[in-house]
Amino acid sequence: MTTVQQYDSEFDYIVVGAGTAGCLLANRLSADPNNRVLLIEAGGRDNYHWIHVPVGYLYCIDNPRTDWRFRTDPDAGLNGRSLLYPRGKTLGGCSSINGMIYMRGQARDYNHWAEVTGDDQWRWEHCLPAFIQHEDHYRLDEGGDADAAHRDFHGHGGEWRIEKQRLKWEVLDDFAEASVQAGIPRTQDFNRGSNEGVDYFEVNQRSGWRWNTAKAFLRPALKRPNLTLWHSTQVNRLIVAGSEPDGEKRCEGVEVKREGTTQLARARREVVLSAGAIGSPQILQLSGIGPGELLKQYGIDVVHELPGVGENLQDHLQIRSVYKVKGAKTLNTMASTLWGKAGIGMEYLLKRTGPMSMAPSQLGIFTRSSDEHEHPNIQYHVQPLSLEAFGQPLHPYPAVTASVCNLNPTSRGSVRIQSADPAQAPSIAPNYLSTDEDRRVAADSLRVTRRIAEQKAFARYEPEEVKPGVQYQTDEELWRLAGDIGTTIFHPVGTTRMGQPDDPMAVVDSRLRVRGIQGLRVADAGVMPTITSGNTNSPTLMIAERAAGWMLEAAG
Fold it and tell me: Model pTM?
């Protein structure tokens, strides 16, 4: 039987999560003044100064003000290690703490989604306009250097600013030339459907400041009287009404903890979850939507059994090779003295350039780990610095780090609640390197790194492989070593994946509607059936753009 709820407030749409996807959704849904929209964010405002200074990610990750500070379960593929698993806890979500890299992935990623869902609307040629729709690409500025191809593949005047980085490093220029000598072509644009090649990454910045989705999409929309923002508000559960067990069910709204009280908000049309690949499955499970046995284990009534909720977790595992170099300017040496640090700070203060303006990774490379791969299947993030682990001091010698990740991992993990308490973090089990293919790619990719470092252009720095170390040579030595030094590059996806009606593990259909629950969608990185071949922030924006269009279309 349906329980009649007394709602404290009522809206047309409720968006859960003011992160990468949620800020765009709130903007698009509230563009029609007739739509009353509520946007809910568990984190606080994005008024912490380190959010906006690009190098400030160092102070935002693992900071309870801006990061959920999740940790993975001990992982067999990582030889029993547990990893810090950052997720944004502020307006803008992960776009407020990430590496700012603008990367769409490869056309084949989206063509595969179309095959998995049976919906051609996910093919590359149909997704491309949604990327372009919100772009503001620097090459298309007045006086920019865009050629015809840039004009065909990029947009101008949208909310999402894309700029070139505001510094270069000679040692990275030479690493790029070494990549060319190793057989990897140069590229002028990673985002035309095939990202093979080497170049500096383009970044989501404006004039040397981080450009997050709160600035791009939310702040302009908050001027509208029909958009309401509740920040510092925890969603406890979704409210689902309907007959049991097999009758039609509908998501009517949400229960939240706000300002110390429990409140209920009703959505006349739809609720859309945009809490990310960790948060959205957690909310679904807490609401009784998910694997029945898991829910019963924690005393949660099964409202609707969907075994795929929280399964299919995928992530990019980066394997960091560190090369000690001679005769090169790197951040290790620049920031080794108080005078050096003062100079870096002054340059940013006066010009918005230099190391404080830089993304965590500057140089990008996409290539193949071996000849058996038809498409680029590994990605490098190359940095003019080195340290033992994130958050630790820079090494006292000049060095370069070349981090490589498998773009298309076959390992699959899970996100599962550990309690009926919304405040308790879920279990996150990525299951890295759990397949033979992933272990083989890990070993092969480290050999590609060595091949690049051996080339003439980089050899002039007399590179010494500090990590992993040349003593590791066999496949088994290398993939076990990868388990020792590998870490997340912060790209969890897939935990509420799209699929066809006959796919029992699909959580949403091809239009992102939760199977078996009317009035409920998911629009975030969790809906990806397979991870994109690159950084995942920009594809998440594209997903939100498409979701907003479908929601408005459904409303007539």
Answer: 0.96
